[in-house]
Amino acid sequence: MTDLSISIDTIWMLLAAMLVFFMQPGFALCEAGFTRSKNTANILFKNFVDFMFGSILFWFIGFGFMFGSDGQGFIGMPNFGDISFYKSDAGLPTEGFLIFETVFCATSATIVSGAMAERTKFSMYCIYSLFISLFIYPVEGHWTWGGGWLCNADETSFMMTHFGAIFHDFAGSAIVHSVGGVLALIGAIFLGPRLGKYRKDGSSNAIPGHNLTIAALGVFILWFGWFGFNPGSQLAASGEVNRVAISHVFLTTNLAAVAGGIATMFITWFRYGKPSFSLTLNGVLAGLVGITAGCDMVSPVGAVIIGLVCGIALPFGIEFIDQKLHIDDPVGASSVHGICGIIGTLLTGVFSLSDGCLYGHGFGFLGAQTFGIIVIDLWAAGCGIILFGTVKKIAGLRVDKRIEEEGLDIYEHGESCYN
Question: Global pTM?
């Protein structure tokens, strides 16, 4: 029975990995639909690059950086393609676990492509994609999912000594999404706005995407893929505990998604006089991002509240970044993944049934969540500033004005998506 249970758990893990991989075309279609047709091939290509580079680099070095050294220290040891160092406590095949972690790494990387859309040199984006898969993501992953200091439950550990609790991020609101959102914001700052985005008086000029149909399809695909992203992070399906856990996570994930979409729909309806379809699509994603940290710990009611809060925050976050900070993020990635990833991580400390302050468990867990998200996002911001600043100074991040005006597809790739 033990062997059968491990086989069932392995199949579940690999099925979840397939669903998370299917989020790559979801991101590609969503980003392409929210941007202009002349840059569609470039957007699609960057999503392929993220997964191609991510798979090779994470297998060769990143997996060791993330899971090596038993979670000790700042970073693990490079494995140079040898994954035999890792042994699953549950008996799961190392190759399967590597694939599961690879698709998460690629997801974090691909979040940035939408925020840097329509004006980034393809060669420079490849450099970014390389570094996040090789170093930025594996380091903070080592601190958390790699068993590192943020998740060390020993009584004498830093987190237990200071907070009496460890940082918790079940499927990646902080580790995947907020990191991608912060890097997206930093990349957009260093790039500067697209031509024509801001008028002389500083007001924002809307640049509509070319196809809401494929953007909507992309969001549906992402929603579907999230049922691998969150429930799959249980890494097991056999036995009563696991089947109850993954069913609960399925429910909380879906409830937060619909609550996020509903909240954004009504907020835009009241503020603009008409419900915005494009913003509602991002509202669904906001709810999904927000619930990802605590989908295993919160009740269905807690999931709805987290989704509502993220869905309400989303349009205000997009407005603030665009109209007040004058940072041009074509798809709203820094708001969807950055702001809502932070909100979801913090609200886990409030609504967790076992540790949340709302249920009388004190503020230690909320403190751990707050400290963890600050440290993780400071790491992402610092790496992003160094990376994008260095690339901009040495080789330049942005394409020439003529290329941006006429489209990146022809000049960067020699072909057009639509003929």
Answer: 0.97
Looking at residue 1, what is its pLDDT?
60
Beta carbons of 297 and 247 less than 8 angstroms apart? no
CB 106 within 8 A of CB 27: no
pLDDT in tens, 43-66: 999 999 999 999 999 999 999 999
Please give the Cα distance from 363 to 409 (Å, whole number): 51
DSSP state at residue 193: P
Question: Phi then psi for 225, rounded to 5 degrees?
Answer: -65, -30
- Contacts with 381 (C-beta within 8 Å, 6 or more apart), sequence order: 182, 186
- Please answer whether residues 54 and 24 qualify as being in contact, where contact means their C-beta atoms are separated by less than 8 angstroms: no
In angstroms, the CA 200 to CA 41 distance is: 31
- Residue 100: which residues within 8 A CB-CB, separation 6 or more? 13, 14, 16, 17, 20, 232, 235
* 209 contacts 34 by C-beta, under 8 angstroms: yes
Angstrom distances, CA of residue 160 to CA of 66, 174, 364, 412:
22, 20, 9, 51
C-alpha 264/C-alpha 276 separation (Å) is 8
